[in-house]
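To fix ideas, we close by showing one paired sequence and structure record:
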Amino acid sequence: MSVFTYQAIDLFNWLTNREDIIVLDVRNDKDFKRFHVESPYPFELMNISYYDFMEIEDECVARIPRGRDIRIVCAKEGSAKYVAEILDKHGFDNVGYLAGGIKTWGNLLVPKLVNPGMEYELYQFIRPGKASCSYGLVSGNEIMFFDPSRAVDFYLDFAAEKGCTVSKTFETHLQADYIAGSRDIAARSGAEFLGNDGDFQGSKNNYISLKDGEIHTFSNGGPEVKVLFTPGHTPGSTSFIVDERFMISGDMVFITSIGRPDLGGKAIEWAKMLFNSMNLVKTLDKNLIVLPGHYMDWEEANDSLVFAMSLGRIMDRNKDIYQIDNLNDFMTFIQDNMRPQPKEYALIRQANANLVQFDADKQEELDLGKNECAATAYAAAQKEKEKKENA
């Protein structure tokens, strides 16, 4: 029998190594369109519902090319196994199905070293299923985390593999698009949990208040981490300048566009703050390497599949935004690019403020799907497309 299981990291490696595989997603069309596997490089992706395999098996099998390696994805694993066994029965070789279902892809974290050859290590943890990035800064036998996801075991295991204790875990803001991990990492490791009062005051988190301009260090010296308040995406949005070389920008500066200010339902008030923060960012060293909290597309990654770009290049590629020199025009840009936020975001904010508790299944449901945190012209284009389709 040629059917086997594989892990999410296996799928990532096959895709990034450009292996010749077909990814067959057997979820329904609605779930597939909301969220599916993506890769830095082109690959063949098919969506044929598990229910279609049940009802019109032969027609479904006939649609799948023979002589190719098939990797099946479903919601929870069982449907993919069912389809894999059908393909095996029909003579397909090398058929695998994703263990744990699509949620394992959604939770996958891939560590990438940002600064090889330096005296400290700065890691970007790419979350392909969310198009988001968290960070780990290692110096001596200590590690600091920035914007960790709820995959707490991953971060603690990573620290252990590096022989490090977790000294601090920072949040750039109160996340709306995924359930954050700082609270649990702090509880399990004894690390300090640091956040901005602008977002976390009123929450039920046991956090330490950040101060604008303060410096955080390691016990052995190492790189300094400077706090820079950049409100706008949220009132408490914060960036971190590492070693005067890197800017962990959260949802303030993206490689494509900037953070949207409307997720809290106060687009006008927050957009004013965002405009001021954008002008602050424009005064920073253009050689700073920006490490964003999210990305729009894999084309933003460099040859090492790291999402990092100098502030100067980012400002140039987004000059239509950064050249806006008055608040009225900036407000027009924001209003043109507003779109409804996913309904899950309000619940995620409550969870991250520790105001409500959800069981593991509900957390998985809320956490699944790509982020929508950028103010981008894509939103305006989608509106125009929908208008034409409905005409």
Remarks:
- The radius of gyration is 22 Å.
- The chain has two domains: 3-104, 109-336.
